[in-house]
UniProtKB/TrEMBL annotation:
Protein name: N-alpha-acetyltransferase 40
A single MF term (Gene Ontology): histone H2A acetyltransferase activity
Subcellular compartments: Cytoplasm; Nucleus
EC number of this enzyme: 2.3.1.257
Species for this entry: Musa acuminata subsp. malaccensis
SUPFAM superfamilies recorded: Acyl-CoA N-acyltransferases (Nat)
Length: 259
C-alpha cells in the first residue's frame, strides 16, 4: 500500500515536471518566433509577386509601430471587405478589430503596388530600408495586408491569421494563395504546429478559398465541432492546416468521422 502511494505521487511529480517542461518549451518557441524582426527576410523570393497583371512588393510591420495613415488604411479596407459578411455584428467587431490592429503581438505583411524602377532592381533592400527607417511610403499604393500572430492553441504553437485582406483590384489574381503559402512557410520555419484562422460563415468566397483551394479543415476547436447546437448559433468557423501528428491529433482529429 505504502509503495503504491509512493509510486503514484512520484508518477504525479514526474508528470507535472513533464507538463511544465513542455509548456516552457512551447513558450520558448513562441518567444523565439516573436523576436524575429522581419520574417520576410528569410524568404527573398516571396518579397515580390508578379503575375496576372499584378506587380507588388511585400513589407513587414508590427502592430504597435504602425504609422497613422497605415492604421487608417487597414480600418478602411476592413470596413470595405468585412461589413457585408459581419452584417449586424459589424459595429461591435469593428471596435474589436481596431484594438487587435495595434497590439504588439500583431505581425503584418503589407502588399504594396510597384511604383518605381529602383525597387524593381532590389526588392529586398528596399524592404529593409522601409522597415528600419519606419518609412512606409505612400499608403495609397497599398493593395492589401495579412495580420498574423504566433500564439498557443490547445498546447500547440500556431500561426493564427487574424486577417487576410485584399482590395477588389488585387483579388482573384493568385495573390491570396501566394500570401497563405508564405504564412505556411513562416509557420514551418518557426516550428509552429499549424496555421489557424477564423472565417465568417457568410463569407462564402473566403470559406471556399480556404477549404477548397488551400485545403484547410474545420478545427476541433471550432464551435460546430465542439457542439453542433452551439455551432449552429455561431456565425463563424475556425479552420486549420496542421504540420505534425500532435497538432493534427489536437486540432484536426476525428475529421473523417464528422458528419
Ligand atoms: C482569416 C480571414 O482573413 S477571413 C477573411 C478573408 N478576406 C476577405 O474575405 C476579404 C476579401 N477577399 C480577399 O481579400 C481575397 O479575395 C481572399 C483573401 C479571400 C482570396 O484571395 P485571392 O487573391 O482573391 O484568391 P486567389 O486569387 O489566390 O484565389 C485562389 C482560388 O480561390 C478561389 N476564389 C478566390 N476568390 C474567389 C471569388 N471571388 N469567387 C470564387 N472563387 C474564388 C478560386 O478557386 C481561386 O482560384 P482560381 O482563381 O484559379 O479559380
Amino acid at each position: 500500500m505504502e509503495t503504491k502511494r509512493f509510486s503514484t505521487s512520484k508518477e504525479k511529480r514526474i508528470r507535472r515536471k513533464e507538463v511544465l517542461e513542455k509548456k516552457k518549451a512551447i513558450d520558448e518557441i513562441i518567444k523565439k518566433a516573436s523576436s524575429v524582426k522581419d520574417h520576410l527576410l528569410s524568404f527573398p523570393p516571396f518579397c515580390h509577386y508578379e503575375r496576372n497583371g499584378l506587380s507588388v512588393y511585400l513589407e513587414s510591420g508590427i502592430g504597435d509601430q504602425l504609422p497613422s495613415p497605415i492604421k487608417k488604411y487597414i480600418q478602411n479596407l476592413l470596413k470595405a471587405n468585412m461589413e457585408g459578411p459581419y452584417g449586424s455584428e459589424w459595429q461591435m467587431e469593428e471596435k474589436v478589430k481596431r484594438r487587435e490592429m495595434v497590439s504588439p503581438e500583431a505581425r503584418y505583411i503589407f502588399v504594396r503596388q510597384s511604383t518605381n524602377a529602383a525597387s524593381d532592381e532590389n526588392p529586398l533592400a528596399k524592404n529593409e530600408e522601409r522597415l528600419y527607417t519606419g518609412q512606409t511610403g505612400d499608403q495609397n499604393h497599398l493593395v492589401g495586408f495579412v495580420h498574423y500572430r504566433f500564439i498557443v492553441e490547445e498546447d500547440i504553437p500556431v500561426v493564427y491569421v487574424y486577417e487576410l485582406q485584399l482590395e477588389a483590384c488585387a483579388q482573384r489574381k493568385g495573390l491570396g494563395k501566394f500570401l497563405m503559402q508564405l504564412i505556411e512557410l513562416i509557420a514551418h520555419k518557426n516550428r509552429m504546429g499549424a496555421v489557424m484562422l477564423t472565417v465568417q460563415k457568410a463569407n462564402v468566397l473566403a470559406m471556399n478559398f480556404y477549404t477548397t483551394k488551400l485545403r484547410y479543415t474545420i478545427s476541433t476547436i471550432s464551435p460546430s465541432r465542439v457542439d453542433p447546437l452551439i455551432g449552429a448559433e455561431k456565425s463563424y468557423e475556425i479552420l486549420c492546416k496542421t504540420f505534425d501528428s500532435e497538432a493534427k491529433a489536437k486540432l484536426e482529429e476525428k475529421q473523417q468521422d464528422d458528419g
